[in-house]
Request: fold
Amino acid sequence: MKIGTGLWALCLFMACDTSFEEPKISLKGYHIQEGFALEVIASEPHLKAPVAMDFDDRGRIWAVQMPGYMNDMQGSDEKRPIGSIVILEDRDADGITDHTKVFLDSLVMPRALSHVYGGLLYAEPPNLWFVDIEDDEPGQRVLVDSLYAGEGNPEHQPNGLLLNIDNWIYNAKSNFRYRRKNGIWVKEPTTFRGQWGISHDNFGRLYYNDNSRQLLGDYVLPNRLARNKHFSPMAGVNQMLTKDQRVYPLHATTVNRGYAKGVLDKDSVLVNTTAACAPLVYRGGMFSEEYAENVFVCIPEGNLIKRNILSFMGDSTIAEQAYMGKEFLASTDEGFRPVNLNNGPDGSLYIVDMHRGMIGHHAYLSPYLKKKVKGNRLDTVTDFGRILKVSQLAQMKMETPDFETMGTRGLIRLLRHKNGWIRDRAQRLLIHSGDLGAIPELRETALNTRYPLAQIHALYVLEGMDALNFDFLAGLAKGSIAKVSAHALILLEQFIVTEYRTRAVGLFDALISKNDTGLDLYLSATLGKWMTVGEGQFLEQMMTVYDRHSGSSLFVTAIISGLVEDETIVLNYLEGMGQNGDSLLGTQLSLAAVNRKMGKMNPIFTRNSLTEDTRTHGAKLFQDICASCHGINGQGIQGLAPPLMNSEHVADPERLALIVLHGLEGPVTVNGKRYDFNLAMPGLIRNENISDKDISDIIAYVTNAFSDMPKNLKPQEIKVLREMESKSGAEFTEAELLENSK
Reply:
């Protein structure tokens, strides 16, 4: 096992006959699960602050570099065009990067990329771009979405660009999905998911997380439960797959809220995750069977990677940590910051290590963390970046297919490959090829029940080629396992016309007779759509399925999601059965019907883009308005303004709001020291460009940045405080503020 690390361990270049530079990185202090090997395959100087990667058809790594993120405690470089997308090359074929080729540079805070449609899709906020690739050079560029992301903290902006099995591209921290069809880019609403990083399993369900919940996911395939615009899903999406957030770092941990009770144990070791990100469902096919579809999760604040084991229950998914008291991979190197994970074409697991001392955004840093970082000099760890590869020692090496010379038949055979990355790539290449001569063989593959995963991939190649029909899908649904049938049911919805009504009823009767919970769920979600061409028999089938699972909020959600045009049909049926007011289904149907009448929608259908997060917006306002007097770090400026750091006036959010709104006159005491300035601090109340929300955001930032007790005031609370006046009608005095606080 190749192990080892060291925060400062960038060794001298190899002295050898080659002109290639291959720096050796020590991995002393890295501990990986027994039976696995860990190696550094790319590092500085070839890589700097990587945050995402993808493989091209030749198996080369393309990496997004974001060196502008947190180069210092103020994030001073965030607006500088110093980001890039690079191609990492191994010219001497020894598995280690020895050359970097810049594909795109002068980017501002890029964060995601994906090789799709023969080109490269990448995110550089606020835009989502697609660019053709011509001999490793950028060709024609197309603006896919000018509202992909708003300004602000990269931790709270869309990212991911995951092309799922269903031919749609999904994102974390976003409620939109994308695809290109017949040369036209399409954007449509989807469930809002996660924070940083997104993955899918072999079936096509999505997985994601946020800081304090290491693994979230959907119980069902995307967009099954969020099609009725007037109903928000009660269950089935954004599910916490495990309540176990315990982590097991190898050393005392430097984290933002380390001062808070229960965050660290008696040895100052992190107890539960506080910055989980980038889950990955392992689909590489090279690890032994017990690792298939395990979910690995990055815990960068703890310098580790966690392993979870999934259990699929038909209508739900459960995760359990693989180990107690240890992790799959953990390091004593505080520079090790895993921020993304990838399945590779060789079946290995790839780790994007930003390798940075500071990964928390300046708008969120607590005084406690700032002090700790200065003490251990983590803020000086900036010019690093690595990609690591994890392989299992006992397994045979997997060869990467030569996609560039492989013909259509070879690509079709790859749809049954044990490596999910290869299956995915074969699927997208077949669609992009547009080879209609492949349709007969693709249909054979889709009907071959010996290879259910290949069936699903072949189905979506045919979907991408517009080569499906009702009878083909109905036959496949009837003769395949439940997971394949579920996909067929989804794809059948494009054929909801009166012509197929009778045949659809017969098909659904056959599927209902299988009495399979997972299949029942997808039937529940589709029968409402079919009722638009004839309610009677489809309604009867719907209630037959529902009666099996009555009381289940998931099945209620599925049924109402399918009723995209009218809930009253089912409501009238329930009323006739005397159940309208007594059942969960009846209650939720009534709610959806009222929402429809009032024009009230699920927010995913009304939101155009993601707004900037509160504290980041507050940080910008503070820097623009307040920092010139109080200092960028809240330290105050001699003779001009007192410090904010740990000020008792910052600890009281209402008092702070009165100062920001109305100003402060006369002497003021901070931490026992009297400041007797001649100038009064003006308030912002007469600035028409500063809203109540702006004031609220400033308070959210200031109480977080300069005290250990972050607090918020809602905009409506700010509005009330606007109406308060000092005795003079001008700025408040400290005495008045203290009197008001009693």
Summary: Residues 1-19 have pLDDT under 50 and may be disordered.
